[in-house]
Amino acid sequence: MRTICLYFQIHQPFRFRRYRFFDIGREHYYYDDYMNESIMRKVADRCYLPANKIMLDLIKKHEGKFRVAYSISGSAIDQFELYAPEVLESFKKLAKTGCVEFLSETYSHSLSSLTNRAEFEKQVGKHRQKIKELFGVEPGVFRNTELIYSDEIGAMVADMGYKGIITEGPKHVLGWKSPNYMYYNAINPKLKVLLKNFKLSDDIAFRFSDRSWAEFPLTADKFASWLKALDKNEETVNLFMDYEAFGERQGVETGIHEFLKAFPSAVFKIAKFSFSTPSQLIESLQPIAPVHVPNAISWADEERDLTAWLGNELQWQAFNKLYELREKVESVGDPRLSKDFEYLQISDHFYYMSTKYFSAGENFSYFNPFGSPYDAFINYMNILSDFEIRLNSSSVSDNDPEVSRLRALLDEKESLIIQYAEQLKKKAVKKTPAKTTSKKTPAAKTKSVAAAKIKMEPAKTTGKKTIKK
Question: Which among 198, 285, 289, 305 has most CB atoms closer than 10 A?
Answer without folding.
Answer: 198
